[in-house]
Prior knowledge:
By secondary structure, chain A is mostly helical. Chain A has 7 helices and no strands. Chain A has helices at about 5-30, 35-50, 60-80, 100-120, 125-135, 140-145, 150-170. In chain A, about 35% of the residues are buried. Chain B is built from 9 helices and 5 strands. Chains A and B meet through α1, α2, α4, α5 and α7 of A and α1, α3, α4, α5 and α9 of B.
Amino acid sequence: MNLLGFISRPQRFEERLGESRPRLWRLAYSWSHNRALSDDLVQDTLAKALVKHKQLREPELLNGWLCSIMANCWHDHLRQHRDTTDIDDVPDLQLPDGATPEDGCQQNQTIRRVRRAVGELPVGQREVITLVDLEECSYGEVAAILDIPIGTVMSRLSRARFALKEKLREPEQTAAICKMSRVK
Amino acid sequence: MIQEISDEVLGAYIDDELEPDEKAHLLDRIAADAEIRSRACELWQLKQMLRSAYRPVRDKSAKRGIFKAPSRPFRWPMGIAASFLIVGGALSGWLARESLEADGLTPQQMEAIRADGSRVVLHLVSDEPERMEAALRMVDKLASAKDKSGRPIQVEFIANGPGVHLLRSGGSPFAERVVAQHNAHPNLQILACRQTVDRLRERGVAVNLLPVVREAPSAEYLLAARLSQGWRYVQA
């Protein structure tokens, strides 16, 4: 490796880690539903990635590698602490261009319902469905990240989706008053 | 004997995990069986719903962390925001089908629409004959109604996903009724989601829309725009 490459490589790696941060944070949040814990998980993941960066032989596998590190951090946390889930910890929402706060009312409710339903899934199912649907990981990648067989990935995913459908079928507890109201 | 299609297989299809021959076989089954189509549609909607519920959440710690925050601030794309309306509405509507009334809308609902002089966007995502027929009854009822000032209510009827079938020339079981309703109501626009049409064509399905049907770039964007303009949303 020439001198320029030696100097520039860590910089590029760090930049790529920085770019991965929002996605990692989203994944951490979808697992924990806790902002502070998500911060910690991402920090731990990035710190470990920096230390272990030589283990990453193929740069294009960075995302899966980071997810794998974060899954380990998450599992360590679960082993050390009681799993506390604040499913009402919904961050402020940004609305699409031109939308009013009233327009966001229904979106807000839908987000809460979906997050609540995800938060009620068993941890294993929650991890699999978020890796597949949010991170767009293949089943093989999920199996590698979580160190479980592909068959387990598929069965957990299927059970998670079934459970979500059932949970979202339940009528909402509170009715919203929105500008763009459903009239049926 | 026709083999049952499990949710695991349907899930693998929407996750693009099937081998080409498995996918081709499943697509044949989906094309031939409304029940399988409905289940696949529901799984797809669920996936979109979950994706929409977890946008890349604002990471307040990024500024103080060891790495820089991304240079471009995240903006929620309009389409993703709108997908809340589509998938949220579609799923709950799908579940509420049993409670549909014969003419689709109750007097109270019609009164609410008339009261605020609403413009209404009616949304169809199903190709089940009873749903399509119910949608047409609702179109007729809405487009025939007048607000409190005596002006006709402006109605846009948009179909996406399997619902586009209603608007297809040479395929729709209600083609004549669709054309007749369009001709009878100058205040009615009938639209098909171009994304759905393009996807069908990519799969080799010949899609010709009825001449009275216009194409909207996507149902998501249309609904997002109408939401911001204060239209009422009705799902068929």
